[in-house]
Amino acid sequence: MKRKLLLSLAVALPLALFLAAREAASWRPQLIGKTTASHKVQISPNGLWACLMDGEGSEIWDLQTWQRVRGKFYGFQDFSPDSRHFAVVISNSRGAGALLHTPQVQLFDVASGKLVRSWRDERHFPDDWLAKGRFSPDGKRFIVVTQKTCRQFEVASGKLLSRAELGTDEEPLRQAAISPDGRHFLESGAGVKLRRVEGGDVVLGRLDARGPMGWSPDGQFYWDRDAKFNNLRLWRLRDHTLVQKVTYDTWLHFTPDSKHLAVATPKGLELRDVLTGKIVQTLPGPQDDPFAFAPDGSFAVAVDGGGKIWKWRLK
User: Model-level pTM?
Assistant: First the structure.
């Protein structure tokens, strides 16, 4: 009996240690490659592609082959909901001194990098520089926010569906963030304003706020920066109440289900309750910005200070 028990332990213990070691190894980050685009990361809805961005341009990476499939280019804005295309917006200029501008949208095939179609609004505005572009959830509309306007285009035809003039402000529009449902956007200039995409009407304005700003994946929360105290502030869209102030980061990351804020720390990825700010879990994961979650939350892609691209398993 004792011999059988010892024999069983002799077999089971090495197996358990092997499985534990394999599990631990599976949580280690995988090196994908190296880049000079290290300011922001965006992963396609199907989790197969990543766009790495900085002031020098953008790169598209295949997360299955770990190959860069498109080198430096300018104007990346968004992946389409079906992940087949990505949109680039550039400024089309005319007039003496090229002071009149209108956005030109270019739609590219992700896999081949080929231009699929291009369109623009024929009306130009003075100093109408791009702020942000985004697909609607169904992929049928593309929204472009510029210094002076908010435009909606039909993706299939390139037809201009609407153009809302935003008017002038004491301070030029510096940044914009469009909500995931394509119904609202935030703009930063003289404070931060929340506007409707349809019509461009101002819903709410805060003079004590500055950019950057952004949205939770479900669109139920938005955030901005307190201009006086430099805190990031999280607001509930439904009633515009302050949920919490954040002092530990320069950018707010949400888990894909919008239930937690994710903070990269030297100990790993801290998940904090979106309503209370309490730490609920710490996972092996990115230890610094920038990083981005796969839409299903199974992994994250991060770029370290040396430009190395890492893929972190989270589930």
Answer: 0.86
